Amino acid sequence: MTHWTFFSDQHWAQLYPFGFSHQKGQLRWGGLTLLEQWNQLFESALPTSVQLNGSDVQQGINKCLINDRWIPNADVAKILQEIKPGQNVSCGSIVLISWSNPLPQQAMIEWEGAELIEHPTDIFLRCGDVIQQQWNTLRDAWQAKSANETILPSHVTVIGDTSKILLAPGARVLASTLNTEAGPILIGPGAEIQEGCHVRGPFLLDQNSILKMGSRVYGPVVIGPRCHIGGEVSSSVFLGYSNKGHDGFVGHSVIGHWCNLGAGTNTSNLKNNYSTVSLWSPAKQTMQPSQLLFCGLIMGDHSKCGINTMFNTGTMVGPGCNIFGGTFPPKNIPPFSWGGDGSWSTHQFDRFVDTARSVKARRDEELTADELSAWETCFEETKSSHSPL
Q1: If DSSP states are collapsed to H, E and C, what string results for 306-319?
Q2: 81: confidence class by pLDDT, cuts 50, 70, 90
Q3: Exposure winner among 40, 92, 300, 349, fewest CB in 10 A?
Q4: β-bridge mates for residue 247, sequence order
Q5: What's the pLDDT tens digit per position in 280-325?
Q6: Is there a contact between 69 and 9 (Cβ–Cβ < 8 Å)?
């Protein structure tokens, strides 16, 4: 029997502003977390495998530890079937599989074909391909049907191939246009596209999320579970449990968990001079060229912004921030920042916790003791960056 769990390597610092709550397989990649994808892979490749949580592992068990930035695919299944217990696998200097009781170094396997998440921008850059790849998996997971296997309401207009629309049980589409010419449209369990929306695929609306009246979506776009999204969205990913409830543009962006964008929030995703966008580098503690022509906002968990907030190209917002004001905020907003218009302070931790509890309660969820402890650690570890901007 293979006992397996995840480990996080040092490269996770480069996935800022997404931290502990997205590690250990919790990062959403398309319509599934990496944990869900690895579970499916182990079930097919190694039916006798058992996933373990670190705190529950008995001493003496030789655990298979999987790099939690590694994206599983069909080729990975072959690796899992071929390796021996204790045989580590690497991709260059990156460890992919590490055992708690490894075989001698010479038994290590070098595999160059690994797909790894290297940077937060990978999430929006690759989401279109991921939507295409997960069609069959999500159809089975959701027990969904394509639109040519069911009856769409007469008030819904489809442009393109109807068979490229996937509808899960409880999904609703009301008086909207769905265009599948550039890619499929997947609508999850209990998700709703309200009246007057215009959607171009590839597009994934996950479980119990709502695309609000009159929204315009230019794929590829992924909206994770339990989000409320309105206005204009292009080439972006909402990882889940977040709101953009009103008009405003979000393009080439990634929005974390439990975020809220105030009415009229806009992101710039293209510079006026059409030069490449610079992004904050946690390793070098400075702005670095990204080689991207299009890049908008990367926002960490539990961050909020007020009405009419304007974000410049390539803005990174750390977790736990509260942003407001009528001018462009800095392109690097450190964790737990509070302010705007040139006046910044540290978001008081007790106020952050109160807000986090209130926000989660709106989705009938609680801030657990483990989450609170992890956020306390995050707050303490990032204190050096809390000084006013």
Answers
A1: CCCCEECCCEEECC
A2: confident
A3: 92
A4: none
A5: 998 888 999 999 999 999 999 999 999 999 999 999 999 999 999 9
A6: yes
**SS3 state of residue 169:** coil
Using an 8 Å Cβ cutoff, are 214 and 198 in contact? no
Which residue from 304, 350, 343, 345 is spatially nearest to 327, judged by alpha carbons? 343
Distance (Å, whole) CA 205 – CA 224:
7
CATH of the domain at 189: 2.160.10.10
Domain that holds residue 32: 3-118
- C-beta of residue 237 within 8 angstroms of C-beta of residue 227: no
Which strands sit side by side in the sheet containing 177-179, from one edge to the other?
157-159, 177-179, 198-200, 216-218, 232-234, 249-251
Higher per-residue confidence, 258 vs 283 = 258
pLDDT for residue 115? 93
Question: How many angstroms separate the CA atoms of 45 and 22, rounded?
Answer: 25
Helix axes 74-82, 34-45, angle to 10 degrees: 50
CB burial readout 275-286, b (16+ within 10 A) else e: eebbbbbbeeee
pTM (2 decimals)? Answer: 0.94
The predicted model gives 73-95 an average pLDDT of 87
Q: CB atoms < 10 A from the CB of 115, how many? A: 15
Which residue, chain included where needed, has tokens 């709101």? 243
316-338 confidence digits (pLDDT tens):
999 999 999 989 999 999 999 99
Q: Which residues contact 363 (CB under 8 A, 6 or more apart)?
A: 226, 241
- The answer to whether the CB of 163 falls within 8 A of the CB of 146 is yes
Kindly give the pairing relationship between strand 337-340 and strand 343-346.
antiparallel
Q: What is the pLDDT of residues 5-14, one digit of tens each?
A: 999 999 999 9
Take residue 106 and report the two structure tokens written for it.
């010479």
Choosing from 84, 118, 152, the residue where a domain stops is 118
Query: Is pLDDT at 53 greater than 70 in this prediction?
Result: no
